[in-house]
Design goal:
Shape: elongated
Number of helices: 2
Radius of gyration: 25 Å
Strand content: under 5%
Order of helices and strands: HH
Distance between the termini: 70 Å
Length: 64
């Protein structure tokens, strides 16, 4: 039980005194970057899906 209490004390100390938390503006700018990157990746995946879907439809029309 003593080890568990010590673990939580050390965890609390590390979170409060050793971790550098971002400021609100840094957090907002990071969220914007992640959102834009996610949208771009989703668009690329969508375009790849449509391209391969169209290519496979043309392929099946030729051979089936």
């Amino acid at each position: 039980m003593k080890k568990l209490v010590n673990y939580f004390k050390e965890t609390y100390d590390e979170l409060i005194h050793k971790v550098s938390w971002p400021t609100w503006s840094e957090l907002q700018s990071s969220a914007v970057v992640v959102s834009i990157a996610s949208l771009i990746i989703a668009l690329v995946v969508y375009l790849m899906d449509m391209t391969f879907s169209s290519a496979l439809k043309q392929f099946y029309k030729l051979f089936l």
